[in-house]
Amino acid sequence: MVPGVERSRIGDQLWVFVLLLSARIGLAQDDFLAKDFNDHECGQRLAQREGLVKGGYPTRPGDWPWHVALYQRGVNSAGFEYACGGSIVHRYLVLTAAHCVTYAASRRKIPTEDLLLKLGRFNLSNEMEEHAEEFNVIESIVHTGFRPTTFENDIAILRVEVPMIFNDFIQPACLWKRDDGYVLPNVQDQSGTVVGWGLSEGNVHGSVLNEARMPVVDSLTCLASDRTFFGRLLNSKAFCAGFKNGTGVCNGDSGGGMYFQFQNRWYLKGVVSFSNTIDSTGICNLKEFIGFIDASQYIDWLYENTPNSGIDDPILGHPNIRLINQGNCGRNKQVYEYAEERKPVFNQYPWMVAIRHPFVDSTYVPCNGVLLNRNYILTTNCVDLQDEISVTLGDYDTGSTKDCAKVNGEEHCSSSSQTVSVGQLFRKDNLVLARLTIPAVIGRRDHIEAICLPVTPEQRNRLYNKYIMTGWKESGTDAQILQRAVLETIDQNTCRAEFQAAEYASEASKQLDDRTICARNLADPTRSPRCNDYQPGSAIQAIEKKSNRYLLYGLQTDIGYCSKPEQYIAISKYLQWILDNIRG
Ligand SMILES: *[C@@H]1O[C@H](CO)[C@@H](O)[C@H](O)[C@H]1NC(C)=O
Ligand SMILES: *[C@@H]1O[C@H](CO)[C@@H](O)[C@H](O)[C@H]1NC(C)=O
Known about the structure:
Number of helices: 8
Largest sheet: 6 strands, antiparallel, barrel
Bound molecules: 2-acetamido-2-deoxy-beta-D-glucopyranose
Shape: elongated
Strand order of the largest sheet: 3-4-5-8-7-6
Number of strands: 28
Mean pLDDT: 81
Radius of gyration: 26 Å
């Protein structure tokens, strides 16, 4: 079976391949929708053309920034495998074909954890692509009228948890609707463009993205070409396109869009849905027309099913929410694998930053912090805010300029760290938000990345028994190397009692409320039990299983040593303040 392609047997010797269609914009239901399905921020190629096209590949990186690759796990193989295309239409949504997210010949949905979206991709064989981003799917909405046997309403919406941040390589396509009175033309006999990784000749799915232009044909012509096949599948919400001469859409192109360009913008008209194949080998027959779902007829449906991404929630509805939790925040190479204690520390927590007064002792880290996005870090009240402050991003061993470490028995080295100074500072209680004077270089390599914050109500309210702590320590032989410990949470009452028994009663009663998380490092084998000398600003984080990302839950305010539990500022109680103070 060809990887990732679902087929249904429709009749003797007929196999069906599905494609996805674009949707048009309906009436804006509220500001959130109006803003996010924006005619003025969609469908444009922004990437600079890089160099010459070699070998006649029909597309270049950045040509189709709304086209994404959908991977499935456990359907045709145990691991994630390329399956279909899809189109970004909104910062939370991708449109694809329903048959790309359901099991073959059924309406049964593939679990969302077995779906993965790859954005900003051009060459799927190259895992190091500069603009690549991956998104987990947290919800798949299959059209309730989807009929797997006839491919009726073969359309589905995929929702991602953190918003996609648009750039030159990741953009939404425009929906087939304009609000300015410009009427999008009838496309019959017009040529649209279909893109996909399945288009290469010889029915091998290609590594680089290909495109094919093909005309839309009227339904009568299509029906006449093969009454048995199209008679069952064509309906008023589907259309045919193609040349019947070998140029067309093949295995693995399902779910991708057919796009038309008007006034310099690309509009999503169709979703690749079904095609007729010549024999039971599953090799597609490009001597036949291809069936598309007419996405322009599903815009109201798309609107109705657009998750109201928390517009009533003060955090999710905050206008600055788009400035945090961007792209690959909270991700690293090993996020999927083993218990935390068994993971390497090197390049594993690329959001950790070392904060110092410049020109003091460059190996000593008095203050830890985390990178929030390209422009901001979060830390605690451990730096003298009157003084000049410098932030080092992507460091591991503060004693060496080039960091290397053994990971799974192999020597790995990271690029040099980035040191920048801090501009504006904001402070609330013990929390400090600082704007960097030069943006962090995120996303190019493994060692500098932002962390995600717990933004949904579920993430904000979740309490963990254990947290992963990372930071540089105050002293000891390992103080210049980033460390990790797993901490156990201590409930508020126990924590308060311990503080009162110790000599810090007044401090404890002053600070202990739900803005503080108490935790203790019980299992640090390199220190005597209960001792902890991680510097202030050390981060406590948890991996959210649904999205496989690290979320920041707290920042250490003080050093507890052995006498009392450590206290951490509960970040979820300060989200509003953070969002109110950051700028783009
Ligand atoms: C795609 O990536 C692979 C692996 O890096 C490479 O061997 C191949 O040449 C690339 N193809 C193109 C067309 O760049
Ligand atoms: C099919 O026809 C179109 C339009 O005439 C042409 O551009 C394309 O190259 C043809 N494909 C093949 C494989 O002959």
